[in-house]
Specification:
The structure is a single chain. By secondary structure, the chain is mostly beta strands. The protein has one domain: Sandwich (ATP Synthase, domain 1), CATH 2.60.15. It has no helices and 9 strands. A hairpin with a 4-residue loop joins strand 1 and strand 2 (11-16). The chain is globular. The protein starts with a strand and ends with a strand.
């Protein structure tokens, strides 16, 4: 699936991901290929991105995640 992690200052990540774990407002959520459409607010925490080459971790202060047709957009603070 395609993933973009954006902040007001810059783009933190752009590319293919096998899974994304985000700190949703009701707890951790893992997003995999084929996930149902979703829009959710995010709390302060860590976004974990698993790619074919390893794992990347990003600290965020909150934001919003949108999932639609194997495209994930994280708008983070």
């Amino acid at each position: 699936m395609n993933l973009d992690i954006l902040t007001p200052d810059k783009k933190l990540f752009e590319g293919e991901a096998e899974s994304v774990t985000v700190p949703g407002s009701t707890g951790l959520m893992q997003i995999l290929k084929g996930h149902a459409a979703l829009i959710s607010s995010l709390n302060k925490g860590v976004v974990k991105v698993k790619t074919s080459t390893g794992e990347e971790i990003f600290d965020i202060k909150g934001g919003v995640v949108e999932v639609l047709n194997n495209k994930v957009i994280v708008l983070a603070e």
